[in-house]
Amino acid sequence: MEPKKKNKPNSLVIILFSLIVLMIIIYFILVMFFPTVFEHMTTGDIQPVPDK
User: Fold this and answer.
1) Contact 7, 14 (CB under 8 A)
2) Rounded to 5 degrees, what angle do the CA atoms 36, 31, 27 make?
3) What's in the keyword line of the UniProt record (predicted)?
């Protein structure tokens, strides 16, 4: 009997997934140590809709 080949994901998929996780971790580290950088970012505040 032949040994079963394990289904491994493509290396590109692994690299992209790890980059996304790494970016999220770096974001939280930056927010913890440099909160003033993110205080001045626009957050898309809700504005009232004018009546017609």
Assistant:
1) no
2) 135
3) Membrane, Transmembrane, Transmembrane helix
Cα(42)–Cα(24) distance, integer angstroms: 19
Q: Encoding tokens for residue 17?
A: 């997934």
pLDDT of residue 1: 61
Count the helices and strands in the chain (H runs, E runs). Answer: 2, 0
All residues at 6 or more sequence positions from 38 whose CB lies less than 8 Å from its CB, including other chains: 30, 31
The tens digit of pLDDT for each residue in 1-52 reads: 677 878 888 999 999 999 999 999 999 999 899 888 778 777 777 778 887 7
